[in-house]
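thread: overnight batch results

M.L. [08:02]
morning all. the overnight job finished for the chain we discussed friday. pasting input first so we're all looking at the same thing
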Amino acid sequence: MGVVDTSESSRLPTFTLKRVLRDATNGAVGAGLATALLYPFLVAKVRLQAQSKRGAKDNTHGSHGDRHEIKYSGFLDCISKTFSNEGIAGLYVGLGTTIAKQTINNFVFYFFHSALRRLYFTEKGGLYSTILSVLHGMNAGVFTQVIILPMDMIVMRVQTAPRGDPQRSFFNVVSRIYEEGGLRHFWAGLAPGLTLTLNPGITIATQKMLTPAAVLTACTCALSCPMCYDDCCSEDALF
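M.L. [08:03]
and the structure it wrote out:
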């Protein structure tokens, strides 16, 4: 009978590219499907936000804006008027770009979240474990912000461009952003965006704290043993 090594180093999560890619792909597919199903609501939200900003600017400068511009009284009114004036295509304008952005966003986040898991693994509980979980999520979030921020800007421009605007296409939007401030302009607002990495950090820490201790114990073997991983439980149950 062999000797079982029960030291903490022997129970560290094993890093395998296959596992990391699987976690990243699962997160990306789920995000893409959710985006496709809920996209009309996202378009309405973005247009209402853009309308509010234009209204505030008009009030500041004493302007009444374009009298031909469509005004939305609320969420459902926005969806209704968009459908009436632009058809079903209006509710899905920029869908391809947004799905690409969301799938890439989640793929990047879960890739780094899975890849960095070994670095932040601990069997200790309490405040130390919580802090590591927060840092784990924040670290993955930082990589995501740096890679995804340019796509966020492009998607916002496509969604809020007026109907019939020849600059509404993906490549025209990219060209316009570059002309406005060069390559660095694609990362405008990066500093404030980095503070938002607290969100996934807190989410992961809360999920870990709420996971029953029995599940954590039962899954310890699965983290360190590739053969047990699929039969015991997923890593998502732990972190």
